[in-house]
Amino acid sequence: MGKQIMLLLMTALLVLSACGTDEPDAEQDTADIPEETNVVDDDIEEEPEGKEEEEPEETEAEADEARDYANVITQLDREEVEDIIKSDAEADWEGDYQMQVFQIDTQTEAYEELLKLEIDDQVKETVLTNAFDYWEYDFQMVLFEYETQMEAYYELQTLDAESEIEQEILERAKSNWGDDYQMILYEYEMQLEAYEELQ
Fold first, then answer.
1. Phi-psi sector, 136: left (phi>0), alpha (psi -120 to 50), beta
2. Is 111 exposed, middle or buried (0-12, 13-18, 19+ CB in 10 A)?
3. pTM of the model as a whole
4. What confidence tens digit (pLDDT) does each residue in 4-63 have?
5. What are the UniProt keywords, alphabetically (predicted)?
């Protein structure tokens, strides 16, 4: 047992003396270490910044991947659409071939415009679907409804409703009209105008 203790002590002394003889190298190594550590620290500091910048992009990409927004018009059968446009024109303008041609042309043009719409968010998808549900194969009216609803939606996004009463009127209009942005905007403007007259 004494031999083992002596052996351990000698090993410890050898290790300590080896460290002592290599002091200049140890200092040089130590001097090198902070530089390497600094490089690592710099990398560490840069990573969170990079992550912060990348996170929103990843979130948007994940959201896009998680949800594909649909253009309801692209899901219609083209031949069926053409047949309906033609038969509607014939029914609307029986015997008036000039007006039949005019209606077919304008409805087809509106249909083509609707096919080109880029539906890349929930609002656009809902507005277009609602317009088609209401107007069905009257593509001129579907297009008109879509454009006017989106115009009203964008105007609502830029409203400067700062006062408590303005916010209250806006919230009430939203509650009353859901995703009918034209009516939300109309009610907001009419109610605000009436309120201001009463002051």
1. left
2. buried
3. 0.66
4. 555 556 655 555 555 554 444 444 444 444 444 444 444 544 545 555 555 555 565 555
5. Signal
